[in-house]
Amino acid sequence: VQPPEKPLQAEEWNRLRESFQSPEIFEEVMFNSMVRCNSPIDVAKSLLTHVAKRNGDIAYNLLVKYLALCVQQGQTSEIRDVYDIMKIRFRVLESGAYNLLIRGLSNSDQWRMALTLLEEVKKIMIPSRTNYESCIKAASRHQEMNLAFELYHEMLAKDLVPTLDVLQAFFDFSRGMKGAELQKELFGILLYLRENQIYPHKTFMRSIKLWFESIPGGNWRGHLTSIKDSGQCPVCNHQLEDSDLTEEEYNNLRERIIRDVIHGTDTFRKTSPQEFEAFQKFVEDRFPFDIVIDGLNVSHIKPRKMQCENLFDAVNCLAKDNARLLVLGRKHMLVNSSNWKREIMKEMQNKADFFFAENISEDDAFLLYATLRSGKHCKFVTRDFLRDHKACLSDSLTRHLFRKWQLIYHVKPKKMFLSVFIQQPALCYDCVVQTTGDTWHIPYKDTFEEKYSYRVPRKWLCIQQK
Amino acid sequence: MQSANVLLKKIVRSSVLPFAAQHGMKKDLFPLSRTLSVSFCLKQDNSCSPSEKLDLDAWKNVMKSGLQEEVSEMVSEPRELSTLAAAREILEMWRLAGRSVPENISEEQLKTFVECPSKSAKKKYLKYLHLKELYKKNDKRKMDEKRERRLETASKTDETRRNSFVCLWANCMDRAYSWRVAQSMIFGQPLVFDMSYEKDMSVREVANTVRQMVLSEGCNRRSVDPFHIHFCNFKDDSLYHKEFIKHYREAWGKLLITVTDQCYTDVFPKDKLIYLTADSPKVMKTFDHNKIYIVGSMVDRSVKTGVSLARAKRLGLETAALPLEKYLLWNTGAKNLTLDQMMHILLTLKDTGDWKKALEFVPKRKYYGFVSKPVHELKKNLNLINTLKLGKRQEEVRKQFAKNYSKKLTQK
């Protein structure tokens, strides 16, 4: 339905309602389309008046829809009126109405009212992160940074993840402001980005840069740059943090993988205890390896070629520099078949160690174990992103460690020309927000949306104090 | 003064509002809040706008005037609410706001709702209750309609029919079925349901499982040559047990099945057992009348692959999967079937040994059709159909996308 352009009389509304196919929901549908078309609120008011006169009451959902229209147009006095009416009419309100009220009021000069509403929401449920977002933005817009940070910490304490918008608002509105406390809080936000591996997008990065440069007497200078492969910043010649996992992190990750990925709820799901024990013994006898190869995965790289030939090429190529290789496979590879020729398999076994798992076992779990057991220098070769194994890890911290470790140690065969492996150089520096006190290095994304989670940004913001 | 005020309000509310709203005297009579007077001023301003006959804020007066009494009632009530009562109120408001929320909710359900760990879990649970309520209501409506219709027809045809049998169908059939199942308990082929998955399932999944098992038991009872059903690893007072009692009530004790807390490996010789699981690498070729098939009583709504295969591996049992790929051109959906579908398929196989007939019980949405030609030929046709259906252009776009995508993957 098309909402009318001018307020209508009762009879006119009645006529419209009669002509509508299902009159019971006429008002609802009409209000929905008013919100969609952003009709003038006078029209909506005339409909409300019509409903009120006919029924002597207005249903809650209509009030909420009217409220949505008011919020959309920033009609503060109307929002307040609706709130007053709702308050006397209903004992509690629900989240939808509160969301609208908070959003509507926080954008007006009555933004303090939004704060009281937030308190009201807290009594009945946990406010959503957008509730907090509105209030924080309102407070920082009015330069009440202390209040804004108080809300921000409260939000973090409730395990709500702040939107990048909120974080950006802090930087935008503190521009040029003095105060050691404020500075500390904003550095805290940057460290929050570091801890959660969040990369700011371009506009956010710009806000950070402008804030730094605006600190009175701070003498901060920001430059956009990209880091050299060696991990050195071309602007300030600072060497970025090493990407290696610490000893503790590494051991932690290994234990978690054995516990969550290989054993999980039931060792039998991926392997069997006998098999895992045998594999453990096999690795203990022969480690450390330099490269662990996922035999089956590699053997499918070129579909036109025989599978064992693919593997053969890979082993030959990787075996060149006296590297100790371990190839993981399944028992069926040993059976002479059109894809797996016995002679070639024999020849390969001279160049590398092989372990053949049961046909129904998961060889990826072994791959992870053998690599981690061999130590930090060991790499593995597979095209698999191992997402399902990552998902088995029980907490997000370990999942992140896994991700980091994977980025460093994943040697992926690139597009092969004549079966030549080109190993992708792993990044030797850690791609997170980092600081030395008088410098900050902040990686950022070009676009707002994150296209691939496994891709780390290549662009950096270098900030240094003169 | 007070009573006169109330009286007047009532009059105002009932009929003559448009008239009353335009009278200034109302202002004096109603000791109302600030906003009302504000809106009055606004109204005065509006009076010179094009819609002069319309009082746009009249609805506010209506909403407020009707409420003075109720407000005073509310104040006397204690404001402190228990969490459950508060939750009930929130639910009520959500219902008013038009969310999918059940109209009636029991104390127990409310407790489950409050204990839901996250907002989305709460929403999901409410939607589930809402739909359940809708179905129930619809069923009841249909029942009532049916009863009415029956009453009508009954009053019309009241003549006595002559028949050589006394009409005792249901009872007789029951007895005949029971006799058959009793026979099968002595001579029939065992079929084992493995009831050891309770810890792998949520409460709702257990309820679904039991429902499916009740259906399977029913169709087994009605078949020509029933299985001898065993519930193995069945613990008394387990969640399974409670759900079964909910379904069967006192009939639970009279069911013609064997229920035991022993494992099937203790009851039957190991070499005769075959564990049916969709994850099995082995595909079942024929139905063997001398083997004992095991079905895991588990509904898996989340992704827990290989749980039953792990069990079979642990016990060193033979496994098998239905030859779905061989006989059906698969469309979508997981290859694991519900327990009652499994029962239908096994019963049909037992009676006829005909795979085609048995696999009729696989839900139609999951496959395109039976394989009559070699599979690759069918797939080619299918691609052709899809191309025609989607239009040529779209297909090209998709190919392009696939190409780019693989390029990106390899570049990375």
How would you sum up this structure, described in words?
Chain A has 466 residues and is of the alpha/beta class. Chain A is built from 20 helices and nine strands. In chain A, the strands form two sheets. Chain A has a five-stranded parallel β-sheet, sandwiched between helices. Chain A has a four-stranded antiparallel β-sheet with strand order 1-9-8-7, covered by helices on one side. The longest helix of chain A is centred in the middle third of the chain and has 17 residues. About 2% of the residues of chain A have low confidence. Chain B is α/β, with parallel strands linked by helices and 412 residues long. Chain B folds into three domains: 70 residues; 195 residues, Alpha/beta knot (3-Layer(aba) Sandwich), CATH 3.40.1280.30; 31 residues. Chain B has 19 helices and eight strands. Chain B has a six-stranded parallel β-sheet. The longest helix of chain B has 38 residues. Chain B is globular, with a radius of gyration of 33 Å. The C terminus of chain B is likely disordered. At the A-B interface, helix 3, helix 4, helix 5 and helix 6 of A face helix 4, helix 5, helix 7, helix 14 and helix 19 of B.
